[in-house]
C-alpha cells in the first residue's frame, strides 16, 4: 500500500461495489468510477484519480497508485491498446490527461505514483467518455486486436475521439503536424500547438510528454493543393499516398462515430 493508514470502506451492492475514495483528511467526493477486469479507476472532484485493484476474496479494494496532483476531475475512463492499459481523466480546466501504472520505474515512487503518458487541452469541459472497440482495417492490422478508442462529449455540445496508434504512424503524423503549424494560415494568426498545451490556471504543473497528435490540425493537409501535399510529404520523408492511407485507416477504425 502507498502509505500507512490508507483505507477504503467497501459495501457490497447489487451488481456493483460502492467505495469511499482512498486517502485521509477532509471530505472527498468521487466524481466517477470505471472498471476493467479486476482494476478500478476512481476520479475525485478535487484530488485527481486513484487506481485500485479489486479482490473477490474478502471483497477488498487495494490502492495501487494515484496522481498526487490537485486535479478537479470531470470524467474518467480506461484506454486499452492491446496489453497496454492507460488511465484517462478530464478536468475543470478543459484538459485531458492520460496516465499509466509502472511500479518498476524510479519516477513512480515504488509504484505509488501514476506517471503521465500524454496531455492535451480540449478547450471544452469533457463530461463523459465512452469506450468503444476500434474496427479492424487493413492498414491497422496488427497483433493488437484488443484496441479501443474513447468517444467523449463536452458540455458545450461537442463530440471528440481519442484513439491509440502504432509508433511508426504516430511519428510520421507528428512530423506532419509540426510542418502544418507553419505551412497553413491559422485563425487570427494563432498557434494551434500552443492552444493545445496543458492549461493549469495558475497551479503548479510539470509539462507531460507530447504524445497526442491533433487530427483537427492534420485534416488541413487534405485541403492543400496537390503540389503542397507532395512537397510536405517529401520534406518529412514519406509519400502523400502513405499519409492519406493513414487518414483513411483512422476514419475506418473509428467509423462507429
Automatic annotation (TrEMBL):
Transmembrane portions of the chain: none
Pfam families associated with the record: CPSF_A (PF03178)
Domain of life where this protein originates: Eukaryota
Database matches in InterPro entries: RSE1/DDB1/CFT1, RSE1/DDB1/CPSF1_C, WD40/YVTN_repeat-like_dom_sf
GO terms for cellular component: nucleus
Gene3D superfamilies in the cross-refs: 1.10.150.910, YVTN repeat-like/Quinoprotein amine dehydrogenase
GO molecular function: nucleic acid binding
Domain RSE1/DDB1/CPSF1 C-terminal: 36-222
Protein name: Cleavage and polyadenylation specificity factor subunit 1
Organism: Zea mays
Taxonomic lineage of the native organism: Eukaryota, Viridiplantae, Streptophyta, Embryophyta, Tracheophyta
Amino acid at each position: 500500500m502507498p502509505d500507512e493508514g490508507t483505507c477504503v470502506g467497501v459495501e457490497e451492492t447489487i451488481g456493483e461495489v460502492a467505495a469511499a475514495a482512498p486517502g485521509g483528511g477532509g471530505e472527498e467526493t468521487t466524481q466517477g468510477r470505471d472498471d476493467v477486469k479486476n482494476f478500478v479507476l476512481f476520479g475525485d472532484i478535487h484530488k485527481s484519480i486513484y487506481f485500485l485493484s479489486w479482490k473477490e476474496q474478502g471483497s477488498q479494494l487495494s490502492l495501487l497508485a494515484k496522481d498526487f496532483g490537485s486535479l478537479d476531475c470531470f470524467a474518467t475512463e480506461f484506454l486499452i491498446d492491446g496489453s497496454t492499459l492507460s488511465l484517462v481523466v478530464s478536468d475543470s480546466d478543459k484538459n485531458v490527461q492520460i496516465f499509466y501504472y509502472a511500479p518498476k520505474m524510479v519516477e513512480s515512487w515504488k509504484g505509488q505514483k501514476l506517471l503521465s503518458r500524454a496531455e492535451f487541452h480540449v478547450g471544452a469541459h469533457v463530461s463523459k467518455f465512452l469506450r468503444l472497440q476500434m474496427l479492424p482495417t487493413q492498414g491497422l492490422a496488427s497483433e493488437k486486436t484488443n484496441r479501443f478508442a474513447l468517444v467523449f462529449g463536452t458540455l458545450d455540445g461537442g463530440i471528440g475521439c481519442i484513439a491509440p496508434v502504432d509508433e511508426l504512424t504516430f511519428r510520421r503524423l507528428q512530423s506532419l503536424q509540426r510542418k502544418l503549424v507553419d505551412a497553413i494560415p491559422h485563425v487570427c494568426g494563432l498557434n494551434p500547438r500552443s492552444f493545445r498545451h496543458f492549461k493549469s490556471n495558475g497551479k503548479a504543473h510539470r509539462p507531460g510528454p507530447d504524445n497526442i497528435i491533433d487530427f483537427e490540425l492534420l485534416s488541413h493537409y487534405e485541403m492543400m493543393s496537390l503540389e503542397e501535399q507532395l512537397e510536405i510529404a517529401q520534406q518529412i520523408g514519406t509519400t502523400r499516398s502513405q499519409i492519406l492511407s493513414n487518414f483513411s485507416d483512422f476514419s475506418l477504425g473509428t467509423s462507429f462515430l
